[in-house]
Amino acid sequence: MAGLIILAGGKSSRMGQNKALLKVGEQTGLERILERLSPLLSDPILVTNEPHLYEGLPVQIIADNYPGRGPVAGLEAGLVASKHDWNLLVACDMPFVSRKLARELLARRGDYECIVPMRAGRAHPLFALYRRSILPTVQRNIQADVLKMGAVLDASRSLYVEESELGQVDDFEDALFNMNHPSDYEKAVEKGLDGA
């Protein structure tokens, strides 16, 4: 079994409000992520610097060990806290995450350390699998002020999985949809009303 690490540490400055708690349909984005992925992944961890906002959710709530250093610091905190060798990292602003895509990434673990979906030539490191063995690399990068997720992938045994290799994942595009701006949230609400 693999673990689940959800990042909710950003300032949501472009959105103007907390993205994790925005409702899409009857649930918040965070609740949707937990409902969709909990059957496949265990011991969910929420990395946030505002723990009081998430009290009562069925997650272990932790703070960044390196506050203000972005997603790579959230990955570091999650890997330190996790009991699992492998963990799926998910950003809190992805309300249509796909269990099918997560299952396909898990099936490719092998001898890799990072397994990352690709769409239209772009890697998506905020819906990707990470092995705990990368923790020293992540920590070195943070201490050296190298904060791009791509630098972690470049320094690790990474497998990039192209959309064309995932024909059975029929919700690939929606799975990687994220809400950065109010217009993205409007689209998410429309999709949610359509049953996505």
Can you describe this structure in just a few lines?
The protein is α/β, with parallel strands linked by helices. 30% of the residues lie in helices and 22% in strands. The chain contains 7 helices and 10 strands.
Could you explain how this protein is built, in words?
By secondary structure, this protein is of the alpha/beta class. It has one domain (2-193): Spore Coat Polysaccharide Biosynthesis Protein SpsA, Chain A. It has helices at 29-37, 71-81, 99-106, 135-143, 149-154, 172-175, 182-193, and strands at 2-7, 23-24, 27-28, 41-47, 60-62, 86-91, 114-119, 122-123, 127-131, 158-162. Strand 2 (23-24) and strand 3 form a beta hairpin. It starts with a strand and ends with a helix. The mean pLDDT is 90.
Q: What keyword list fits this structure?
A:
7 helices, alpha/beta, 196 residues, 22% strand
Query: How many DSSP-defined strands?
Result: 10
Uncertain residue ranges: none
CATH homology group: Spore Coat Polysaccharide Biosynthesis Protein SpsA, Chain A
Largest sheet: 8 strands, mixed
Outline type: globular
**Cα Rg:** 16 Å
Tell me the CATH architecture. Answer: Alpha-Beta Complex
The arrangement of helices and strands along the chain is EEEHEEHEHEEEHHEHH
Helix and strand content put the structural class at alpha/beta
CATH topology: Spore Coat Polysaccharide Biosynthesis Protein SpsA, Chain A
Number of domains: 1
Chain-averaged pLDDT: 90
Strand content: 15-25%
Number of helices, where a helix is a run of at least 4 consecutive DSSP H or I residues:
7
Distance between the termini: 26 Å
Could you name the CATH class?
A: Alpha Beta
Q: Helix coverage percent of residues?
A: 25-40%
Pfam families: NTP_transf_3 (PF12804)
Main location: cytoplasm
GO biological process, one term: Mo-molybdopterin cofactor biosynthetic process
Keywords: Cytoplasm, GTP-binding, Magnesium, Metal-binding, Molybdenum cofactor biosynthesis, Nucleotide-binding, Transferase
